[in-house]
TrEMBL record:
Name of the protein: SGNH hydrolase-type esterase domain-containing protein
Region (Disordered): 267-295
Origin organism lineage: Bacteria, Bacillati, Actinomycetota, Actinomycetes, Micromonosporales
Presence of the UniProt keyword Cell division in the record: no
GO MF term list: triacylglycerol lipase activity
First and last residue of the signal peptide: 1-24
Length: 338
């Protein structure tokens, strides 16, 4: 009889303590923060506003605009920003951030300044000095990038970080009427951009993806017949060597989408996995018949946790009855004569 009590008690405990299936709430919005310099803010794509020259044609804005009901974009990119300036931009990041994009490093080298002083057919002393400074800054850039990306990952520990590089501006062209620089300077510019891209690629780590934009831009450098990069006509506006609207759309946006998917695809990847059904989940009880309505239903369904409570209560009554019976049943007395 003792074994019956133990078994009944175990069943009652299981009924009362069995947890309900916990299901995480679905994610409805991609929390996206864009960081970086003028290539990220969209300078050169048109429609720029504010001191940071943020364009409606920037790749981050275009990606978010493809599904405005799905993406919540915080655009912190700013024209002229360096790796040090990103420290002020990452204030927009937190542990709820889902996606971060970054394009940074070009302004650390001051490449546009070199373009301004190197225009001509042969390098001048001022041009040589500008190129020498770029070499020195290239040597310092890896440490700056490492510290910056560590700060980004610390501020947004759950986010996917996509690092978009830079297109090769000249692509080794022999002549270039749109940016009249000496061939040696143009080659140096391509080499410097390649070095920056290699440094950005080196930051790839779990949760950090390098996105190569040189491939979609191939054949569309500033010296090409179909350029997606602005030439010297943009010097006064500071847009020289920046992507045009076409460069942002067919170059940067295409590369970003290939790397992280469309907004809908990215959102689908954020959804929590479905909770497995309990192995001993009881079948849902049918709705009790409402006799007042002629047996046509109308009663409240009893399902899930309510069923467990009913089962537990019933077993508790059975256990109590067994104990009561054990206590009150008549005892048989046998008289043994000597």
């Amino acid at each position: 009889m003792k074994s019956i009590y133990v078994a009944a008690a175990a069943v009652v405990a299981a009924a009362f303590l069995a947890p309900g299936a916990a299901t995480a709430a679905p994610v409805s919005t991609v929390d996206y923060v864009a960081l970086g310099d003028s290539y990220a803010s969209g300078l050169g794509a048109g429609g720029e506003t504010g001191t940071c020259k943020v364009s409606t044609g920037a790749y981050a804005t275009l990606w978010a605009a493809a599904a405005p009901d799905v993406v919540s974009l915080t655009q912190k990119s700013c024209a002229g920003a360096t790796t040090a300036d990103v420290a002020t931009q990452i204030g927009a990041l937190n542990d709820k951030t889902d996606l971060v994009t970054v394009t940074i490093g070009g302004n650390d080298l001051a490449l546009l300044s070199a373009v301004r002083v190197c225009t001509g057919t042969t390098p001048t002393p001022a041009c040589e000095e500008a190129l020498s400074k770029i070499r020195d800054r290239l040597a310092e850039l890896p440490g700056r990038l490492a510290g910056m990306f560590q700060a980004v990952k610390t501020a947004a520990p759950k986010a996917k970080v996509a690092v978009l590089g830079y297109p090769l501006p000249f692509e080794g062209a022999e002549t270039c009427s749109r940016v009249p620089l000496p061939k040696a300077v143009r080659d140096f510019g391509d080499l410097a951009v390649t070095s920056v891209n290699d440094m950005l690629r080196a930051q790839a780590a779990p949760g950090v993806t390098y996105v190569d934009v040189t491939r979609p831009f191939a054949g569309h450098g500033v010296c090409s017949a179909t350029p997606w990069i602005i030439g010297v006509e943009g010097l006064s506006a500071g847009t020289t060597l920046h992507p045009s609207a076409q460069g942002q759309t067919q170059g940067y946006l295409a590369a970003l989408t290939a790397a992280v998917g469309t907004p809908q695809e990215f959102l689908a990847g954020l959804q929590p996995p479905a909770s497995p059904s309990p192995s001993a989940s009881p079948a849902a009880s049918p709705s009790p018949t409402n006799l007042a309505n002629g047996g046509n239903g109308g009663g409240l369904p009893v399902t899930g946790v309510n069923v467990w409570w009913l089962v537990g209560a019933g077993l508790a009554l059975l256990l109590a009855g067994a104990i009561l019976y054990r206590t009150l049943r008549p005892r048989r007395i046998e008289v043994v004569s000597g």
